[in-house]
């Protein structure tokens, strides 16, 4: 039996969207305008422990040993409230999170963070949730977190309401996900100036390119799914690159523009193109930050990484890279609370 005061720990891995989520149909429930497709990464993850029943009248949260405050704290409390409501408890919680993802640098820390929080909080509250329910719960913290419940390739169905908006694993008959790698070019590990939440709101409201991107999006997703079905990395890479470039185009024409792409990002994008001309499999994607993620074949990842570091040494001397492969889904560790007899 689990009582509400036993702690639970969960680990969730970051995911990078190959076909993006950018824009909400419902801000409160986090229902996206478009469905999205992602790859969960082994090297980037968050481990979170939640314990309900602490003294005091407020939740407490730390991330990498620092007390979480402000908006980030409020988002954690909101998710805990959903869990409390569902479990019928009012206890305050202690949340301890450790990240291997540079926070808020467009490296999907909110995806792994809220997936781990959803998993740990639900387990600590004694809730037995299915993966689909966990995906829906994580979505309420951060949309992209819905996909981090699953390993490998995951699709988040936009849906139209709380019940129908969830992620699930993508059928992968050729085992393509095992052949994929992502070389993450960390050009800037600092915090981004415009949050993805604000950036997407502004884009939806003001960019003349937003609707055309949404209209093209369904075709991008269908093409990507078809590519996965056929184990066709070239097609998957090409459509992922096109979809991300289109998304950043919508940001550029927002008023005022949402600017995540820096000169260094542009240099990295050009380097990826050069690699392709050299015959290496490499396609670029970017999120709500300046960093560039390069989709490649697992067997070529080290070579792609070495070439990119070489090519970018002058323009981005501070460059750090992470070579990541397909990672696992949410892992929940609930201490065994049965009494010995
Ligand atoms: C560009 O999931 O961080 O990474 O739902 O407002 O928390 P909220 O946004 P978030 O947005 C991620 C946007 C993206 C694309 C993607 O991951 O699909």
Instruction: Provide the succession of SSEs.
Output: EEEEEEHEHHEEEHHHHEEHEE
Q: Report low-confidence residues grouped into runs of 5 or more.
A: none
Number of strands: 14
Which structural category do the helix and sheet elements fall into? alpha+beta
Reading off the top of the CATH hierarchy, the class of the largest domain is best stated as: Alpha Beta
Strand percent estimate: 15-25%
CATH arch. level architecture of the largest domain: 2-Layer Sandwich
What's the overall geometry?
globular
Q: What's the arrangement of secondary structure elements?
A:
Elements: E1 8-19, E2 24-26, E3 31-32, E4 36-52, E5 60-63, E6 66-67, H1 70-87, E7 93-99, H2 109-124, H3 131-141, E8 153-157, E9 166-169, E10 180-186, H4 196-206, H5 210-230, H6 233-252, H7 263-277, E11 283-286, E12 292-297, H8 301-312, E13 320-325, E14 331-333
Parallel strand pairs: 5-7
Antiparallel strand pairs: 1-4, 1-14, 2-3, 4-7, 4-8, 5-6, 8-9, 10-12, 10-13, 11-12
Bound molecules: ligand DP6.
């Amino acid at each position: 039996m689990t009582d509400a005061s036993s702690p639970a720990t969960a680990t969730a891995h970051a995911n990078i969207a190959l076909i993006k989520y950018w824009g909400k149909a419902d801000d409160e429930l986090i229902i996206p305008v478009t469905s999205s497709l992602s790859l969960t990464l082994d090297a980037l993850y968050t481990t979170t422990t939640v314990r309900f029943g602490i003294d005091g009248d407020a939740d407490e949260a730390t991330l990498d040993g620092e007390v979480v405050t402000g908006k980030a704290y409020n988002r954690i409390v909101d998710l805990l409230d959903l869990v409390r409501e569902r479990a019928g408890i009012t206890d305050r919680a202690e949340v301890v999170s450790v990240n291997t993802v540079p926070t808020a640098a467009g490296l999907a820390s909110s995806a792994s963070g809220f997936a781990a929080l959803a998993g740990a909080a639900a387990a600590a509250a004694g809730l037995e949730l299915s993966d689909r329910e966990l995906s829906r719960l994580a979505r309420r913290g951060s949309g992209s977190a819905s996909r981090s419940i699953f390993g490998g390739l995951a699709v988040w169905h936009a849906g139209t309401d709380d019940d129908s908006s969830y992620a699930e694993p993508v059928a992968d008959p050729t085992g393509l996900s095992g052949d994929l790698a992502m070389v993450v070019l960390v050009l800037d590990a600092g915090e981004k100036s415009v949050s993805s939440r604000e950036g997407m709101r502004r884009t939806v409201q003001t960019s003349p390119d937003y609707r055309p991107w949404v209209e093209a999006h369904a075709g991008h997703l269908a093409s990507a799914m078809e590519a996965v079905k056929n184990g066709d990395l070239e097609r998957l890479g090409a459509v992922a690159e096109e979809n991300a470039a289109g998304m950043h185009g919508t940001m550029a024409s927002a008023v005022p523009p949402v600017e995540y792409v820096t000169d260094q990002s542009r240099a990295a994008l050009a380097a990826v193109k050069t690699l392709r001309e050299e015959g290496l499999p490499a396609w670029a994607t970017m999120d709500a930050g300046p960093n560039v993620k390069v989709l490649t074949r697992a067997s070529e990842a080290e070579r792609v990484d070495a070439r990119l570091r070489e090519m970018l040494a002058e323009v981005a001397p501070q460059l750090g890279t992470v070579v990541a492969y397909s990672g696992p889904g949410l892992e929940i560790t609930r201490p065994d609370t049965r009494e010995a007899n």
